[in-house]
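step: validate -> pass
step: tokenize input -> pass
step: predict -> running
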Amino acid sequence: MDNAIYASLTRQAGLMSEMRAIANNIANASTTGFRKEGVVFAEHVKALGTAEPSLSMASASGRLVSLDQGGLSRTGGSFDLAIEGDGFFMIQTPSGPQLTRAGNFTPSAEGELVTADGHAVLDTGGSPIPVPPGTRAFAVAQDGTLSADGVPVSRIGVFGAADPSQLIHAGNNRFSVNGTPEPVEDARIFQGFLEESNVSPITEIARMIEVQRAYEMGQSFLDKEDGRIRAVLQSMGR
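step: predict -> pass
step: emit ->
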């Protein structure tokens, strides 16, 4: 395959990956605690010989999670929690511990603090957080200390990854970590609030238009290159 076409196809595939990431961001602009993602492009350069210029190709080599703070929305719910600062809540799932910024929790029938889909929220030591049955006053301090009827019973853990690139999207607004989650000490937890998505719909739509135009430009080049090759083949066949 001609080098120009191969390089263009690689670029087009990367732009399609970026378009899918943008579409997913827009779809989750109202999702509690959602973290937008972007595509990371890498350039690969190969020498073709002393008499020819080098070949440069760009590819979408991965995704990067934006850790920008989302706005805090007051709900007044006793079990609604939001993090201000870095870090995530850690929850126990069948696939192992995962991280989330969505703090719309609830007490379970077993007396534990859980997510909406029933996964246990973990404390600083990685254990489920108890919610004693019959608790009338449930309070959470900004350092994560949880009290039931004025008696401290646990401390909600806030964890993160040493490198944001270690965060792997696991679905359902959760992330797994390529490594061991590390405690985050300087985050503050607010009770009665939920964090909004950190997606700006206007910014994402502007990005979508930009990527679409770049894709159309690449497609136009491929069409012209295909026409050039056809013309050469036809002239050689005469």
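step: describe -> The helical segments are 3-27, 201-236.
step: cleanup -> pass
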